[in-house]
Amino acid sequence: MSESTSNELEQQESSTPVADNDDKTTSSVPSVKANKSKSNSFVPWLIVLILLLIIAAAAWFGYRHLLPMHTQHQQALETLRNEQTATQTELEQLKKALESTVGKVNKQLEQALSAQEQQVRQQLQTQQSQLADYRLAVESVQAELANLDMSQESNWRIFEAYELTGRAATKLWIEQDPQASLAFLRLAQSHLVALNNPAHMAARQALANDISALENLPEAQVNDVSLTLGALRDRISRSTWYQQLAMTDVEQTPSEDDSWLANLKRSANTLMQQFVRVQRRDTPVEPLIADAYFDAVQQRLLLQLQLAQQAAMQGEQTLYETTLDEAISQLQVLDGQITDTGITEIVKQLTELSRVTLRPDYPTQLEATSQLERLVRQQNVGG
Prior knowledge:
Elements lengths: L1 H14 L5 H126 L5 H22 L4 H18 L5 H15 L6 H16 L11 H4 L7 H16 L15 H24 L2 H18 L8 H12 L12 H16 L1
Helix pairs in contact: 3-4, 3-12, 4-5, 5-12, 6-9, 9-10, 10-11
């Protein structure tokens, strides 16, 4: 379009006649305007042309560079999708394989545990049956050993152990001597230990139990109690009891003078009252008790202590406690009526003696007696 426009302008210029010099000045103005209009109409076309060139260059650049990159990107995405699909497929396959493997492993474990349990049960049953067989074998061996023809020494030792056990029982329950009984039981045990026969284990265990029971018994208090009661009887028999007279206020008030002369006077006054009893007139008159009463009470008390001593020697606990209680009650009545100041101490000692157990509780029977009797019968049957 720009070329056709320029050709038309040239034709017009050639067709117009050349004017004079005066007309040249007037014709130059429209020519300038025509040139300006031409230039103004050419600029938009130039811009359009530049834009087209830019668009073409951009299209060429996009086709040259961006289209391959887009294609590669699409191919990469497609590849990733394919890989993701393949990965999911593999995961599902692995999951199924894992589930099947777990099921197989659980099944195998259950089978193995069941087989192991059955094997353990069979082993336990086998061991139990073996133990039962061993027990029967041991019992049969013991029975055979018990029925064997023993030598004369073995027979003698069994009979001797049986006799020693009987003597131990006599010493324990009749003579009340647990130490002698314990010595006899130990001697009987030595006879069975010398034989060393498994068939005698029951009898040896019974002897050990009896020996342990006697060793754990507390010691008897018969001798100690008897000696203590004898000392008290001797002390009371050497005492002289008189009625204790009432003292005046002057005598009842303790003297602050603790010199030897004041003590000597008090001792002389006490001694004098044992021979000459004087009752003061400034105190209430009390009737005198005859000396024969105190002598009779003293003799009765000595008799009670003697009975308690005999009961202690015989081991009669009830009689011993009864006689001591009567003696204590008599002394409590005399407390404060006689001049002897040791009555309270004697009452205290008798109270402590009344709480003493003379002999411990012995066992009602000896276990070894029946076991040794069984062995003796077996020997008699075997002989």
